[in-house]
Amino acid sequence: MWFLNILLFLKPVRLSNVKKLGIVSPYCPSHMKIQMIEVSGSRFWSTLGLAICFLTLPVQSETVTKSGKVPNFSEDVAPIVFQNCVGCHRPGEAAPFSLLSYKDVQKHGKLITEVTGTRFMPPWHAEQGHIELLNPRMLSADQIALFKTWYENGMPEGNPGKLPKLPTFVEGWQLGKPDLVVKMEQPWKLYAEGRDIYRNFVFPLNFTEDKWVRAIEFRPCARTVVHHALFFIDTTGTARKMDEEDAEPGFKGGDRASRTFKPVGGWALGGNPRPLPDGLAIAYPKGSDLVIQTHFHPAGKEEEETSTVGLYFADAPPKQTFVGIQLPPAFGEITGMDIPAGETNYLVKNSFTLPIDVEAFAISSHAHYLGKVMTMTAVLPDGKEKLLLKIPDWDFAWQEQYTFKNRVPLPKGTRLDVVMSYDNSANNPKNPANPPVRVRWGPRSNDEMGSIGLQVVAAKETEAPILRAGLKDHVTDILIDRAIKEPKRIALVDALFKQFDKNENGKIDDDERPALRTFIQNSPIFPPQLNNTF
Fold it and tell me: Measured between alpha carbons, how far is 200 from 249 in angstroms, rounded to an integer?
């Protein structure tokens, strides 16, 4: 399995040493997870997660030290809570308790004060101070101090008549009412215990004309066992046939969809649904079906999943396409990732030089439990550097996609450098193995992988194919270089080297490489979809 065009492989992590609040990392907006918490020395599985979501920019409020008065709920605290918390903390959403009223917030005042004071909440893992990101989920120091002051002064309610109006939400949808809602026709049953499962489900869209989709919102119902979902488009009817041939809803296969159909996005632990920037959308051709590949992790009891998906259409076809630059490609599958037990700083590095001028608009990253620090740096042709993303303390539970506030121009010749570090020691509280064991690349939750993905548009749309071709060459070169370094080559690899080593010097020289690249790219082992390009 050389390539697996996946987005995330996740399962709950055992964090028995996080005891200050008796909780472990939560997530939202549309799902819950199984968590292991420690209370009075005993461990137990709990579905009671904390998910205080901060969905919009904070509202500034003065602390008692600035205004000379003790803050109250109605005038000071409620605006912060209503603006930043109730997107998830309301009935029907992922959070385990509501924060719609004074009594709700008062009841959880101590907990909210502690998690905001430590910046455990709101969850925002990208380091600030570099490229400005859109809508960071961060409270200001004044807001954190205000909430603490309110709590320490007895949490006064104030005048209920001054309470701001609650935000208006479309029931069940973070992005508002979808243009089209599709739902699984039958529930699929997951057993209580056993190995992780990857199941593909087909959603007939019945489009009578081409559509352009600017956002997808995925809503699983078995939230404790669904850990990621990948979206694909099938224009051939193949997925329907696979579904019909399987006795259960959907069809098996962790890599069948990624090798057969066109990727159009995904849903991941901790991420909020986000529309594409204005002017961008993904083509859904007439007659196409949506295929969703879902990763399930059994959690101790039988569950039934009936996924629902909302599609949001663009008003007109986009004038630009966009390209995903994933480094290393295939989530590190072809890098030979092999992390020794006890290693505290295992590094994975990958670089790619842009063959054209581009503008970057979004960035995201992925790893499993051992991920530690993840960075992508742009080294410009003049030698200046731009740090595009740094996550100093990776948390598998918050797989965010970050949108740049303004597009970031990156000229031709810019080198993108990715460095990812992994901690496979006993000192890593997120390590699922105790004692640590050797970990290699793999699709299971206890395996490891990793990449950083940069979403870009070509400065000139006519040059986008050049970028896609460059990415394809980059993947091929990684394969060639790894094969060259392999001490024990298989017979097929030896035969290829002999065929393309024209000067018989035992190497693949620069002038010999293009022919070998072309041969590999035209071979059946080379997947048609790479780097999440669209």
Answer: 9
**Is residue 507's pLDDT more than 60?**
yes
Tell me the residue type at 294: T
Residue 46 has, within 13 A of its CA and on its CB side, a CA count of: 18
Give the ranges where 1-160 is alpha helix by DSSP (H).
Answer: 64-67, 78-84, 102-107, 109-117, 141-152
SS3 501: coil
What is the C-alpha separation between 10 and 300, in angstroms, rounded? Answer: 16
Report the amino acid identity of residue 137: R
**What sign does the CA torsion over 310, 316, 317, 318 have?**
negative
Residue 523 has pLDDT above 60, yes or no: yes
The pTM assigned to this predicted structure is 0.76
Work out whether the CA dihedral 233, 9, 375, 383 comes out positive or negative: negative
Helix (H, G, I), strand (E, B) or coil at 107: helix
Alpha carbon distance 128, 125 (integer Å) = 9
Q: How far apart are CA 350 and CA 135, in angstroms?
A: 29
Higher pLDDT, 230 or 412: 412
Q: Among 33-47, 85-99, 183-197, 452-466, name the one with the lowest average pLDDT.
A: 33-47
- The span from the CA of 137 to the CA of 426, in Å, is 31
Residue 16 to residues 13, 25, 132, Cα–Cα distance (Å): 9, 12, 35
Which residue has better confidence, 321 or 396? 321
Q: Let me know: does 235 contact 326? Beta carbons within 8 Å.
A: no
C-alpha to C-alpha distance for 511 and 509, rounded to whole angstroms = 5
Contact 274, 401 (CB under 8 A): yes
The verdict on whether omega for the bond into residue 122 sits within 30 degrees of 0, i.e. cis, is: yes
Pairwise CA distance, residues 102 & 163, whole Å: 10
User: CB–CB of 233/288 below 8 Å?
Assistant: yes
Q: Residue 39: beta bridge partners?
A: 42
Q: Which two tokens stand for residue 144?
A: 């954190």
Return the SS3 of 162.
helix
Residue 404 pLDDT > 90, yes or no?
A: yes
Neighbours of 265 (CB within 10 A): 21
Nearest to 385 by CA among 430, 424, 417: 417
Q: Which amino acid is at 265?
A: G
Cβ partners under 8 Å of residue 107, min gap 6? 97
**Complete edge-to-edge strand list for the sheet that includes strand 282-284:** 180-183, 308-313, 211-219, 282-284
List CB contacts of 69: < 8 A, sequence separation 6 or more. none
For residues 156 and 442, what is the distance between their CA atoms, to the nearest angstrom?
53
Identify whether 91 is preceded by a cis peptide bond (ω within 30 of 0): no
- The token pair at 408 is 């970031």
Smallest CA-to-CA distance from 343 within 420, 443, 439 is with 439
